[in-house]
Amino acid sequence: MKLALCGRCDGLRIFWSLFRCGATVVCYVLPFKDDCLIVRDKVVLSHVPRNITVAPAADEAAFIGASSSNSSSRHVFSFGVLEGYKFMCFFRFKLWWMIPSFEDSGCEVPAETQMLLLETREKSTVQNGLFEPTTENSLYILLLPVLDGPFRASLQGNTVNELEFCIESGDPNVQTSQVTEAVFMNLGDNPFKLIRNSTRYWQSTKIPAHVDWFGWSIWDAFYHKVDPEGIEKGLKRRIKGGFPPKFLIIDEGWQNKVMEVEAEPDETDSPYHATSVDRLTSIEENDKFKSFRSGKSYANLREFVKFIKEEYGLKYTPCFNICFESFVKNVHD
């Protein structure tokens, strides 16, 4: 197994290649004058800051961290300059939605990027202080921002093509000056195998049983126009078609909300710019889910949920952001 680590000595970047042979680890120290992240002789990032740390995971995988002179609940660390390589990433363009983006420079990495898959088709060499590319086989590098203790991480770019990672606790009282495992990095020749193999580091996580159940999320069927009658019709159709759902996600449309205008539409804005936003006024069910009649009267959402669970064999009825179990304390699976 081969690992790539980096350290510093006398102002130089030191690259350590570790080769594990049974219980023996042999270290080769290679001085490198340019502050670059090099993977299999490929210059992936240049101008890597001195506060970036790399810790081995297994094989050629590693965890990226960083340190700061100040303690804070939120830090943004530069990872180095990213230029000349194509990449695909998934980022949160809304609080609850992710979409892909395909770009080729650090400034185009969106904020709140949750995964970045970098394709390096060129081998870069340093000549007279300049990087000269030569064609070689493709290599894929996967960057996954993960949890490091109470801190969550995400990737982003800036205007000078630096790739950054942001770590934050969400609590001003939970602060740190250092993280050691904020971003997971792995590499491989096949992007599909790379992603599959990388998830093995979290295989110890217990997978809940309902992952293997068939479920139905009503969002694409109703959006905000959901009502109890439509839910019942959808359940009946799926059961008749031979696909009875075991859990039902009532996604939006049941709460008490108001629509507020956030900004006027601007054709120069990003297509993902929201011009309006829903404001939650109460987690109590709205009028559509009160006094609904389907052969009998249901006074509230709890009674309706209890009915459809008993009538259609549902085991769970979670809701977007809020679990219905908080409303149906007396309803058992």
UniProtKB/TrEMBL annotation:
Keywords from the UniProt entry: Carbohydrate metabolism
The protein's superkingdom reads Eukaryota
**InterPro entries from the xrefs?**
GH, Glycosyl_hydrolases_36
Decide whether keyword Iron-sulfur is in the record: no
The answer on whether this UniProt entry bears the keyword Secreted reads no
Q: Name one Pfam family in it.
A: Raffinose_syn
Q: Which PANTHER family match?
A: GALACTINOL--SUCROSE GALACTOSYLTRANSFERASE (PTHR31268:SF10), PTHR31268
Family per record: Belongs to the glycosyl hydrolases 36 family.
Q: What is this protein called?
A: Galactinol--sucrose galactosyltransferase
Origin organism is Prunus yedoensis var. nudiflora
